[in-house]
Amino acid sequence: MKTFLVLANGTVLEGQHFGATGTRVGEVVFNTGMVGYEETLTDPSYYGQIITQSYPLVGNYGINGEDAESDRIWAFGYIVRELCDAPSNFRCKKTLDAYLKEQGIIGLAGVDTRSLVRLLRESGVMNGALTTEYETAEEALEDAELMERIRNYTVTKAVESVTCEKPVVHQEDGQYHVALFDFGSKYNILRSLVKRDCKVTVVPATTTAAQLKEMHLDGIMLSNGPGDPAENVEIIENLKEIAALGLPIFGICLGHQLMALAQGATTEKLKYGHRGVNQPVTDLAHGRTYITSQNHGYAVVGDSLDASVGEVSHVNANDNTVEGIRYKHMPCFTVQFHPEACGGPKDTDYLFDEFVDMMKGER
């Protein structure tokens, strides 16, 4: 079966089909991780996006179900150079092809992902479509309706699409009660809190300060998530009131961006974002650089935050973008990267310990 990637600039790549069939439009991005494809596919932060994997061989250890970061695939499509159809690993339960078929996600293999990644780096992320519904590339390009869908596509209502519907409690007997905002939260954030003796109540993205007051909390965790942070006007307004509660707050990725917006900063869209498990981040306080896992297309503009409100605590060692903020008037710190994702493999999980120390009153 012929499968095509059709990009908004008119580029078409033809390759081998795997996964589901049909047509899916999304924002085409690339991930530089050598491993972790199951975690990548199930990360809700990829909602609305078609992922290109830069590492050439994908699927070699299969899918095990234990490494998933949510209960389903959130990416809109998956592109690889070479697909392994005979995985070998003692934890393997199914192939990547079977997994995508089950989830209704289109896959494309056998294309020059190196060339595609270079295109996205030079031109910036762009819209595209994965499709199995055309016989030739010309036929796809001549479909005016398809090309209009590609050109007009934007990732909207992303957090609304991935957040939970009602609060869910984990580890009822935990010593510290934390509200984990589900903006598209990954399982390992929950695990990182639970293993530190926290009772965790996962709450919907639009939970208010008044609702949090009724929960008798020790701290608040703001999770990762997809989309343009500035789109979440209601959540940003809620966070202004939530910050005033005076509870310890720790934010990751989208949570980091939303808190910055609530405190008067601005965000900007990056040309091609940071997506992968090999992003260098410098902790300015410790004078040390860590290898981190990241997945974001937007960043906080450093000099847009009033110096009396907060200071930049971490920066990206590649492009000097903001990777962390510590606030001066409230017990709150946030980071752009994923300390729960074990990029180093455990270099930055000290941040969870700092959060617990804040709840203990030791910071």
Automatic annotation (TrEMBL):
<keyword id="KW-0055">Arginine biosynthesis</keyword>
<feature type="binding site">
    <location>
        <position position="297"/>
    </location>
    <ligand>
        <name>L-glutamine</name>
    </ligand>
</feature>
<feature type="active site">
    <location>
        <position position="340"/>
    </location>
</feature>
<dbReference type="GO" id="GO:0044205">
    <property type="term" value="P:'de novo' UMP biosynthetic process"/>
</dbReference>
<feature type="domain" description="Carbamoyl-phosphate synthase small subunit N-terminal">
    <location>
        <begin position="1"/>
        <end position="131"/>
    </location>
</feature>
<comment type="similarity">
    <text>Belongs to the CarA family.</text>
</comment>
<feature type="binding site">
    <location>
        <position position="298"/>
    </location>
    <ligand>
        <name>L-glutamine</name>
    </ligand>
</feature>
<dbReference type="Pfam" id="PF00117">
    <property type="entry name" value="GATase"/>
</dbReference>
<dbReference type="InterPro" id="IPR050472">
    <property type="entry name" value="Anth_synth/Amidotransfase"/>
</dbReference>
<dbReference type="GO" id="GO:0006207">
    <property type="term" value="P:'de novo' pyrimidine nucleobase biosynthetic process"/>
</dbReference>
<dbReference type="GO" id="GO:0006541">
    <property type="term" value="P:glutamine metabolic process"/>
</dbReference>
<comment type="pathway">
    <text>Pyrimidine metabolism; UMP biosynthesis via de novo pathway; (S)-dihydroorotate from bicarbonate: step 1/3.</text>
</comment>
<keyword id="KW-0315">Glutamine amidotransferase</keyword>
<keyword id="KW-0436">Ligase</keyword>
<keyword id="KW-0067">ATP-binding</keyword>
<dbReference type="InterPro" id="IPR002474">
    <property type="entry name" value="CarbamoylP_synth_ssu_N"/>
</dbReference>
<comment type="function">
    <text>Small subunit of the glutamine-dependent carbamoyl phosphate synthetase (CPSase). CPSase catalyzes the formation of carbamoyl phosphate from the ammonia moiety of glutamine, carbonate, and phosphate donated by ATP, constituting the first step of 2 biosynthetic pathways, one leading to arginine and/or urea and the other to pyrimidine nucleotides. The small subunit (glutamine amidotransferase) binds and cleaves glutamine to supply the large subunit with the substrate ammonia.</text>
</comment>
<feature type="binding site">
    <location>
        <position position="45"/>
    </location>
    <ligand>
        <name>L-glutamine</name>
    </ligand>
</feature>
<feature type="binding site">
    <location>
        <position position="227"/>
    </location>
    <ligand>
        <name>L-glutamine</name>
    </ligand>
</feature>
<dbReference type="InterPro" id="IPR029062">
    <property type="entry name" value="Class_I_gatase-like"/>
</dbReference>
<feature type="binding site">
    <location>
        <position position="254"/>
    </location>
    <ligand>
        <name>L-glutamine</name>
    </ligand>
</feature>
<comment type="pathway">
    <text>Amino-acid biosynthesis; L-arginine biosynthesis; carbamoyl phosphate from bicarbonate: step 1/1.</text>
</comment>
<dbReference type="InterPro" id="IPR036480">
    <property type="entry name" value="CarbP_synth_ssu_N_sf"/>
</dbReference>
<keyword id="KW-0547">Nucleotide-binding</keyword>
<dbReference type="InterPro" id="IPR035686">
    <property type="entry name" value="CPSase_GATase1"/>
</dbReference>
<keyword id="KW-0028">Amino-acid biosynthesis</keyword>
<comment type="subunit">
    <text>Composed of two chains; the small (or glutamine) chain promotes the hydrolysis of glutamine to ammonia, which is used by the large (or ammonia) chain to synthesize carbamoyl phosphate. Tetramer of heterodimers (alpha,beta)4.</text>
</comment>
<dbReference type="GO" id="GO:0006526">
    <property type="term" value="P:L-arginine biosynthetic process"/>
</dbReference>
<dbReference type="InterPro" id="IPR017926">
    <property type="entry name" value="GATASE"/>
</dbReference>
<feature type="binding site">
    <location>
        <position position="257"/>
    </location>
    <ligand>
        <name>L-glutamine</name>
    </ligand>
</feature>
<dbReference type="InterPro" id="IPR006274">
    <property type="entry name" value="CarbamoylP_synth_ssu"/>
</dbReference>
<dbReference type="Pfam" id="PF00988">
    <property type="entry name" value="CPSase_sm_chain"/>
</dbReference>
<feature type="active site" description="Nucleophile">
    <location>
        <position position="253"/>
    </location>
</feature>
<feature type="region of interest" description="CPSase">
    <location>
        <begin position="1"/>
        <end position="176"/>
    </location>
</feature>
<feature type="binding site">
    <location>
        <position position="295"/>
    </location>
    <ligand>
        <name>L-glutamine</name>
    </ligand>
</feature>
<keyword id="KW-0665">Pyrimidine biosynthesis</keyword>
<feature type="binding site">
    <location>
        <position position="225"/>
    </location>
    <ligand>
        <name>L-glutamine</name>
    </ligand>
</feature>
<feature type="active site">
    <location>
        <position position="338"/>
    </location>
</feature>
<protein>
    <recommendedName>
        <fullName>Carbamoyl phosphate synthase small chain</fullName>
        <ecNumber>6.3.5.5</ecNumber>
    </recommendedName>
</protein>
<dbReference type="GO" id="GO:0004088">
    <property type="term" value="F:carbamoyl-phosphate synthase (glutamine-hydrolyzing) activity"/>
</dbReference>
<dbReference type="GO" id="GO:0005524">
    <property type="term" value="F:ATP binding"/>
</dbReference>
